[in-house]
Amino acid sequence: MSNYLFLAAAIVAEVIATSALKGSDSFTRFWPAVLTVVGYLLSFYLLSLTLRTIPIGIAYAIWSGTGIVLISVIAFLLYGQKLDGAALAGMGLIIAGVAVINLFSKSAGH
């Protein structure tokens, strides 16, 4: 499996875990709490696999930036979180930053 596929899977696992964290109601609901713990463990394991070839700063920037945007979209869709213009602009800048790293950075370890 490509290291970027490991990174994508790590992002998905982290987004699922964070979404379940909200649903766990401060770890008072068993199954969402279990999903949170398993999701974070899987996410960090997969992230560690990407560090074999992708520099840690690049991998973490992509992992965290993409996760922020995806969680914000999920929070909007599932939990009714409001996203104002500044939030949308900030997320646009995060997406642009991840794109610049992937398309133009020689540090990205392609």
UniProtKB/TrEMBL annotation:
Subcellular location: Cell membrane
Chain ranges passing through the membrane: 30-51, 58-79, 85-104
Protein's UniProt name: SMR family transporter
Source organism per UniProt: Robbsia betulipollinis
Family matches, as InterPro entries: EmrE-like, Small_drug/metabolite_transptr, Small_multidrug_res
Primary localization class, coarse: membrane
Family listed: Belongs to the drug/metabolite transporter (DMT) superfamily. Small multidrug resistance (SMR) (TC 2.A.7.1) family.
Pfam families xref list: Multi_Drug_Res
Membrane topology: Multi-pass membrane protein
Keywords of this entry: Cell membrane, Membrane, Transmembrane, Transmembrane helix, Transport
